[in-house]
Amino acid sequence: QVQLVESGGGLVQSGGSLRLSCAASGITITHYYMAWYRQTPGNGRELVATITFPTGITNYRESVKGRSTISSDNARNLMFLQIDDLKPEDTAVYYCYARRRIDSSKSQEYWGQGIQVTVSS
After folding, report:
1. pLDDT digits (tens, 9 = 90+) for 81-102
2. Is residue 32 within 8 Å of 99, Cβ to Cβ?
3. For 20-46, what is each residue's pLDDT tens digit?
4. Residue 104 DSSP code
5. Structure-derived torsion over alpha carbons of residues 66, 21, 95, 69, reported in degrees to the nearest 10
6. Contact 19, 80 (CB under 8 A)
7. What is the Cα Rg of the chain in Å?
8. Contact residues for 36 (Cβ-Cβ < 8 A; gap 6+)
9. CB–CB of 36/94 below 8 Å?
10. Residue 21 near residue 8, CB atoms below 8 Å
11. Can you tell me the distance from the alpha carbon of 120 to that of 6, in angstroms, rounded to the nearest whole number?
């Protein structure tokens, strides 16, 4: 059974930092395209950051670029998202995501249960 379990969320003051973790079981993250998404009430999930293996190439949405770092501990099958200089608009539920292409028409994807990040002004 595949599980993606997020941790590290909570209430943080504006300007502070947070490090989210995603613990994967049942999959090997280096075999997947891994990402962090976030969602606010009434809105769809938006992509925050991605990491691609084996290159380790990362990408970020513009609003977090320069103050966020996505990384992984491949030996422990963990993915992280560090966000610095947090802003109230970063308040959201953050989700860990994994996807792997099975063939030309099918992909396998998994979501974590999500974790709340609240940034107070």
Report:
1. 999 999 999 999 999 999 999 9
2. yes
3. 999 999 999 999 999 999 999 999 999
4. T
5. 10
6. yes
7. 14
8. 20, 22, 47, 48, 49, 50, 70, 79, 81, 94, 95, 96, 97
9. yes
10. yes
11. 21
